[in-house]
Design a protein that fits this description.
Layout lengths: L2 E6 L4 H8 L5 E7 L5 H8 L4 E3 L8 H13 L5 E4 L8 H6 L4 E5 L11 H8 L3 E8 L9 E8 L6 H24 L3 E4 L2 E4 L17
Parallel strand pairs: 1-2, 1-4, 2-3, 4-5
Antiparallel strand pairs: 5-6, 6-7, 8-9
Helix pairs in contact: 1-6
The chain binds glycinamide ribonucleotide.
Glycinamide ribonucleotide binds next to helix 1, strand 5 and helix 6.
Length: 212
Amino acid sequence: MKSLVILISGRGSNMQALIEASLPGRIAAVISNRPGAEGLEIAEMRGIETQVVDQRAYPDRIAFDAALAEKIDSYQPDLVALAGFMRILGDIFVNRYHGRLMNVHPSLLPAFPGLDTHARALQEGVKIHGCTVHFVTSQVDHGPIIVQAAVPVLPDDTAETLAARVLQQEHRIYPEAIRWFLEDRLQLSHNCVEVIDATTDGAVLYSPGLHK
Ligand code: GAR
């Protein structure tokens, strides 16, 4: 059975969605770069091993990344899943896990990489927003896209209401993408990911629509 290690920095709701998804693989450990991350407690309550690699204990990115990689490798995971891991990882780290390092990001990449994605989407007046699961490359919030989910932006949305609607979709697509990986159904070539035996109803998404 394949295994994964999940990296978090905070609340851990995506991690929790992965734990609850009954994935066809074993969650070997949850590792945080922040000792107080709320998600650590949730993982412990579910009987999952947790570790902290405190970024403040290391003089620079290279030293932190090396310590993190050493901790991850002690579990020999097939996949490393970033779930709200809010620290930029350096090239050496990213290359080490090429093709087996995934991230979920709260926007329809390549739009809105970085922080405050929902407020920026509202500011730009986009009508459709969403989330993306992708393989990680050394360019932050870029990399081959595995799956995306879109939500309409509603006239009275605030960053908070939009974030909540997007987060629901994150919780849906991240477990799905990881399931595909664990089932060997993702084929990565150049910058494109093919999902073997993906099913689609061919629906068209558009917004604004009828929301009342
Ligand atoms: C999620 O919305 C995730 O997409 C985002 O942080 C939040 C973490 O929430 N990640 C990024 O912005 C990465 N660029 P969670 O801790 O409840 O899963």
